[in-house]
């Protein structure tokens, strides 16, 4: 007990469980993806998996199509989420916290259950499943991930800046364009990341809402791994991770520029 109490008394030791978790469930899988991506079935180093991707038009088309679906979904979520988050963040909106909970409530339900409910809804309305249903399902599932970060940023905004802009003669449109919108950019970028990244890698939503007639890049990765093509599947996963990493770096640069620039 004495050694345990001494161990727990040091605050730095509380980080150890998180480091172990990070090593086992994050770093190790990433290392395995990199290893399999750059090796062949014989275990030797090779770039054949990436060459195969570049020479496979169907995989490239699926990759580009997945990016397009992710961009459309992110844009629609942003268009729908920003007005909702802006209204909820207003001081005059007395029930804002309750409404935010109602927006976030679907996130408490498993994404597969929500998607199956969407399929049932389309069947009930006799609407054919396809690309439109796919985008609708994506937006429905990921819209709360866009609303909350924007709402959180707008709610914490210094309203003295808005009052100062009004005192300087700015009309409501100018106040929004030159004060509110620039200050809400960190929330917008967080929302974009929280929608874009899972959208580009998902496969279950596409399979259910298109009856597996439309394949996304995540579906291609899943099929290769399920068929025992671990090396090629790992290479595709690494390509997707690189794309997500580049997106995160670009969003961080935009975030820094917004924070440095302030209100223009």
Key words describing this protein structure:
globular, 264 residues, mainly alpha, 0% strand, single chain
Task: Compute the number of helices.
Answer: 13
Listing every helix as H and every strand as E from the N terminus to the C terminus, the arrangement reads HHHHHHHHHHHHH
Q: What coarse outline follows from CA principal-axis ratios?
A: globular
The tally of beta strands, per DSSP, is 0
Distance between the amino and carboxyl termini: 60 Å
- Our Rg estimate from Cα atoms comes to 23 Å
Helix content: over 70%
How would you sum up the major sheet? none
Class based on secondary structure composition and strand pairing: mainly alpha
| Arithmetic mean pLDDT | 85
Give me the oligomer status. Answer: single chain
Which ranges are low-confidence, i.e. pLDDT below 50, for 5 or more consecutive residues?
Answer: 260-264
Give the strand content. Answer: under 5%
Topology:
Blueprint: H1 2-9, H2 16-37, H3 48-54, H4 57-89, H5 96-104, H6 111-124, H7 131-155, H8 159-167, H9 172-183, H10 185-201, H11 204-209, H12 217-226, H13 230-261
Give a description of the structure.
- With 264 residues, the chain is mainly α.
- Helix content is 77%, strand content 0%.
- The chain is built from 13 helices and no strands.
- It has helices spanning 2-9, 16-37, 48-54, 57-89, 96-104, 111-124, 131-155, 159-167, 172-183, 185-201, 204-209, 217-226, 230-261.
- Helix 2 crosses helix 13 and helix 12 (217-226) runs antiparallel to helix 13 (230-261).
- The chain is globular.
């Amino acid at each position: 007990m004495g050694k345990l109490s001494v161990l727990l008394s040091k605050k730095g030791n509380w980080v150890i469980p998180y480091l172990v978790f990070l090593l086992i469930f994050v770093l190790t899988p990433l290392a395995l993806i990199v290893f399999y991506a750059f090796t062949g079935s014989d275990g030797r180093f090779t770039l054949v998996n990436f060459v195969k991707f570049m020479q496979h038009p169907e995989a490239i088309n699926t990759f580009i199509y997945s990016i397009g679906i992710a961009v459309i979904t992110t844009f629609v979520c942003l268009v729908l989420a920003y007005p909702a988050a802006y209204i909820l963040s207003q001081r005059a909106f007395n029930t804002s916290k309750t409404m935010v909970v109602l927006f976030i409530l679907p996130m408490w339900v498993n994404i597969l259950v929500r998607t199956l409910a969407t399929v049932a809804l389309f069947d009930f309305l006799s609407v054919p499943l396809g690309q439109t249903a796919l985008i609708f399902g994506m937006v429905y599932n990921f819209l709360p991930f866009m609303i909350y970060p924007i709402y959180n940023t707008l709610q914490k905004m210094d309203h003295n800046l808005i009052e100062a802009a009004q005192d300087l003669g700015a009309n409501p449109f100018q106040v929004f364009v030159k004060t509110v919108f620039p200050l809400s950019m960190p929330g917008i970028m967080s929302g974009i990341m929280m929608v874009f990244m899972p959208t580009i890698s998902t496969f279950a939503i596409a399979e259910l809402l298109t009856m597996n007639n439309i394949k996304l890049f995540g579906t291609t990765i899943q099929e290769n791994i399920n068929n025992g093509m671990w090396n090629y599947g790992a290479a595709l996963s690494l390509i997707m991770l690189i794309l997500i990493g580049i997106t995160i770096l670009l969003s961080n640069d935009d975030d820094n520029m917004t924070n440095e620039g302030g209100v223009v």
